Amino acid sequence: MDLFTTTALSILAAGFFVGVVVGLTGMGGGALMTPALIFLGVGDAATVVTADLTAAAVYKTGGAVVHAREGSPNLPLAKWLILGSVPFALLGPHLVAGLTSDEDQLDYVLKMAIGFALLLAASTYALRLYINLRRVRGGAAEADPNPPIRAVPTLLVGALGGLLVGVTSVGSGSVIMVALLMLYPGLSAVRLVGTDLVQAVPLVLAAAISNIALNGLDWDLLIPLVIGSVPGTLIGSAIAPRVPQSFIRRGIVVVLTMSGVALLDKAGWAPLGKDETHPLLIAGIGVAMIVLVPLIWGLLRRQQGLPMFGAPTVAELEGERREPAQGRPSAR
């Protein structure tokens, strides 16, 4: 394939940009990569989801290996998540494909599903920040690197995450993470991230395999995506300590919300009108959120007895808590 066409370079640039954001924030890339590729018009929704999942399987594997070597994942917890997520990741694409045999209708259904998944991801990401804010103010739960496994809720979380990822490629780094925060408040940030990465590898692999079996794999899309995203992730990870996280993370909530609404608009969601798009509405939502998100965040901080702005920052809220030594090296 020719990597110097306009299309290939735009895919590479999108992959690089999203990779940098993933490296900076630790956020799963599907919530950003999938809508970016759809808006670029490089393929229909099914093709984009398949390529994104395949690329994610590559860069998530590297992250999982690093965390596993550091001893940060809670492997029993990851096992229960995998037991719930993998079957539904395999099943989800076939369930959606079974809804219709018409390609245009399938594209509509997928865009709708991705749009709502992005709004869910934005909501859960904001909720994650708020939970951490309350933890800091109210006193964090006692660190417990190996809590008793709550099997049924964990299986259900895995199943929901697997279904979301299998259908939309969104959810492994947002919805599952928030659920783990609520189910296992004693896990430190590094344990949560390590566990999420380890369970995400078989999850995205299963979702990728299922989507490839249904839709095939567009190598002209996948290759520049991987070439762009892998170095982007490495660069983002390297510069993360020197970049103000608060603005980036709040910005992600805004971008996810705008992307979700824009995809619903593009798909012709009835409340927005089936026959026309509404760029001014989407821009207005973005401007309103840019103004309101910092204000609402400040009010929530004040409600917890903290100054509206300043310490603890968003990055500090998501920072690692100390764990008692368990015979494993502590992650730094």
UniProtKB/TrEMBL annotation:
It is found in: Cell membrane; Membrane. The keyword Cell inner membrane does not apply. Keywords: Cell membrane, Membrane, Transmembrane, Transmembrane helix. Its main location: membrane. The chain crosses the membrane at residues 6-24, 36-57, 77-96, 108-131, 151-184, 221-240, 252-272, 278-300. The lineage of its organism: Bacteria, Bacillati, Actinomycetota, Actinomycetes, Propionibacteriales. One of its GO terms (cellular component) is plasma membrane. It comes from Nocardioides anomalus. InterPro entries: TM_pro_TauE-like (IPR002781), TSUP/Inactive_protease-like (IPR051598). This is Probable membrane transporter protein. It is a multi-pass membrane protein. Belongs to the 4-toluene sulfonate uptake permease (TSUP) (TC 2.A.102) family. It holds the Pfam family TauE. The keyword Membrane applies.
